[in-house]
Amino acid sequence: MLIRLNKFLSSDQISLKIDKNFTIDDEAFLSDTHLHKNINFKGEAFKVDGSILLNGIIKYTFSDQCARCLTHFDNTIETEFKAVLSDCPKENEKDNESDEIQLKITDGCIDPEEDIKQMIYLSMPMKSLCKPDCKGICPNCGVNLNYEECKCKDNLIDPRFEKLKDLLND
């Protein structure tokens, strides 16, 4: 994915809006993340004090499984990022502790694909819900409570505490 900045770099413009759809063809990455190929990249590049800053949003969709009801669904995530664009590589390569993303401008273009893959890995949720009010599954009968009502008794008692119930009858 190349983003061309030639005209922007040579002009007096202060900002440049970017809206680009692209596909990732890395099959190993796609199978690891269950990611759909199409990704939307929106952002704006700014010239600030002799440097170029890029603020952006990456929107992607991947196949996921609900943590409560185990239903498979397509999960769409938007993640924001900020980057600094530069003509030359980092002066200090050992300074990898910085959270700042640096993209290299080569022949008036940037190729943020590898950085976008890293941002996707980092922004994927640990647990996902198919919908915010997901009811999950019944722990006794395994019925998906989003679609069916459970037939289990409401007053199920742990067999270890069955004798304590007799105390209430006295």
Structure description:
The protein has 170 residues and is an alpha+beta fold. It has two domains: 3-133, no CATH class; 135-170, no CATH class. Helix content is 18%, strand content 36%. The strands form two sheets. Strands 2-3-4-5-6 form a five-stranded mixed sheet, covered by helices on one side. Strands 1-7 form a two-stranded antiparallel sheet. Strand 4 and strand 5 form a beta hairpin. The model has no long low-confidence stretch (mean pLDDT 85).
- Note the gap between the termini: 76 Å
Q: Note the main sheet.
A: 5 strands, mixed
- The overall pLDDT, averaged over residues, is 85
Q: What form results from the Cα inertia axes? A: elongated
Query: Radius of gyration from the CA trace?
Result: 25 Å
What kind of oligomer do you see? Answer: single chain
Structural class category: alpha+beta
Helix content: 10-25%
Query: What order do the strands of the largest sheet run in, or round the barrel if closed?
Result: 2-3-4-5-6
Number of structural domains? 2
Q: What is the N-to-C order of secondary-structure elements (H for helix, E for strand)?
A: EHEHEEEEEHH
User: Could you give the count of β-strands?
Assistant: 7
